[in-house]
Amino acid sequence: MTASLLYSLAGAMLCGIGLFGLLWLSHLLRKLLAFNIMGSGVFLVMVGLPQHQGGPDPVPQALVLTGIVVAIAATALAVVLIRRYYHLSGMTSLEGERASREGGPE
Amino acid sequence: MTLWLMAGLLFTPLAWAVLTLLMNFAWGRLVTWGGIVVQVLVSLGLWLIVSRDGGFYYGLGGWQAPLGIELRVDGLAVTFVLLTAVVASACGLHAGVYIDPDKPWHRYFWPLFWFLWAGLNAVWLGGDLFNLYVGLELISLSAVGLVALGGKAGALRASIRYLLAALLGSLAYLLGVALIYGQFGTLSIAGVVFRLEEHAVPAGSGLALALMVTGLALKTALFPLHRWLPPAHGIAKSPVSALLSALVVKASFYIAARLWLELGEPLGSLAAAQLVGLLGSAAVVWGSWLACRQLELKQVVAYSSVAQIGYLFLLFPLTYSVSESVSLQAQQGVTLQVISHALAKAAMFLAAGNLILATGSARVDALTGVSRFLPFSLFSFGLAGVSLMSLPPSGGFAAKWLLLQASLGSGQWWWLLVLLAGGLLSAAYVFRIYRASFLESLETDEFYHPPRSLEVIPMVLALMAIGLGLVSAEVLSVMALPFEEEGSP
Predict the structure, then answer these.
(1) Do A45 and B175 touch (CB under 8 A)?
(2) pTM of the model
(3) Which of B43, B113, B328, B483 is the 20 to 30 Å CA partner of B273?
(4) DSSP states of B425-470 as a string?
(5) Above 80 in pLDDT, residue B488?
């Protein structure tokens, strides 16, 4: 097994874990973390898969930097929205049950 | 000349976004009027240049493909740039009057509006897969911000749902991009096509295309991935809903269509094409059916968007392994559908906003008696509905006529049933609104009268949607212009 394949498979696994979390968990912050894990998986595939004359390829590294900036912007926006939503409704999930109140300010 | 036009087109929205960030709502509106004039002139100028000289590749800032950002300026792209200029200007002007300037957070409308415009232009002109991703994210993030501008818990819930769906879609697309780059070593669509012509198709590259198209379908709200759209479009302020329905969902579809037209033949399969067409048909029927059953006016219009988006995906089966002329008909039909739906749906949402403003309630049954009071807005709503029902001579009719011919030409007669059923169902939900507004109640009606300028804007858009059917040949001729291939990697 080559190194690039190892990276890609690990990235694919991270994607799978993130996707599972994004679809399955109901707490919004957990969903957001799952999104970040999935993003890391995608970046790992992006950096690991391409090979340039037997060594790592510089172009995807630059792309992943941009990708990270985009992911941080998205995460920041999501955190702000979730926080505001929690303050207004007292809920931490979209399902509309007030039961999932753990881990937040009263 | 081209240099200044390109600079104006890409630089103005970003500059205006930063400028308006520093101002209150009233000043932002004033500055935005200036920006709208610049954008409309620049878009028109670029359209005229391309319709005279044909399309070209443009390296931004003089940097060519692998290092710089390469833009593909062709007939289709400039047509959509111009469409964006028309619809976004209308929504911007409407929003300036419609949105309440006294709520302090409303001043963020202008920066978000301009960032959205910048992202749209970047997507129409983008030539490589990664910059398309950045453009898409710019669009999604500003669109989510615009939905959240409502400020209430319901608006936030809708915007979070929208954000999660959009992010998941983007990641699926980006994973596909990573696989494409890993296999072909290039990000430009033209470069991938070039490599596919030279070498055999590598195993598994169909997966990359499938991932990208699935992600984009989620962002375009193709059935059954449409669940996020109606709450977001229904709860946003009316000018925002108009922007989202008319332009934002079209951006992700535009990328999916581009990918399919360039890479679908080597990487796709007949089963995949038929499956996407089937989902599109299901969207047409299911979306229209749900639109008939909604209690709130804007939810009706939002579900109608789900249905109208379904038609667009008929592009996939109608261009896969069919003759050149049938494929061209399907492409032209889908292009006209994009344009006519953008104009009609923007008109419909803006008119619906006026009706809600007048009655003070979002419900369909609150429209009782509004036909006597607000006939102008109701008439714009109806004209837009005529285009959605695809009656002649509207743009919607021309679009569906071309799609109908393409289905017959390729022997896929089953899409005919979808086109017919969709037309009938859309007539049903438009007439339902009309029926509610012509009923009379015994109580005295109390309506607020929206300013005249709010009523004129949807009327202009609706008339354009109707008139599109008369000038469709001219619009389509710009698409078919020759394209200079030099500069492509």
Answers:
(1) yes
(2) 0.92
(3) B483
(4) HHHHHHHHHHHHHH---SSPP------HHHHHHHHHHHHHHHHTTT
(5) no
Q: Quote the tokens at residue B379.
A: 């008439």
Distance of CA B244 to the CA centre of its chain: 7
For chain B, give the percent of residues with pLDDT over 70: 97
Q: Do B164 and A22 touch (CB under 8 A)?
A: yes
A67 near B CB under 8 A: yes
Q: Encode burial over A69-89: b for 16+ CB neighbours within 10 A, e otherwise.
A: ebbeebbebbeebbebbbeee
Domain A3-89 is in which class?
A: mainly alpha
Position A99 pLDDT exceeds 70: no
Pick from B157, B168, B178: which is nearest to A94 by CB? Answer: B157
Contact flag B137-A22 (C-beta cutoff 8 Å): no
Contact call for A74 and B137, based on CB within 8 A: yes
Average pLDDT over chain B reads 88
Instruction: Report yes or no on B307 lying in a domain.
Output: yes
Spatial distance between the Cα atoms of B284 and B282, rounded to a whole number of angstroms: 5
Q: Is residue B123 part of a domain?
A: no
Q: How far is CA B148 from CA A98, B122, B151, B369, in A?
A: 21, 23, 6, 32
Per the listing, tokens 């898409």 go with B136
Ordered by start, the domain boundaries in chain A are 3-89
Q: What is the ipTM of this complex?
A: 0.90
Mind listing the pLDDT tens digit for each residue in B25-41?
889 899 999 999 999 99
Cα separations (Å) of B303 from B222, B273, B291, B454, B457?
12, 24, 5, 24, 23
Decide: A94 and B157 in contact? Cβ < 8 Å: yes
Domains of chain B: total:
1
Q: What is the DSSP string of B111-156?
A: HHHHHHHHHHHHHHHB-BHHHHHHHHHHHHHHHHHHHHTT-SHHHH
A14 vs B: CB within 8 A: no
Which residue range is the domain that position B376 belongs to?
271-489
- Judge whether residue B51 has pLDDT over 90: no
Q: Where are the alpha helices (DSSP H) in B268-374?
A: 270-293, 297-312, 315-319, 324-359, 370-373
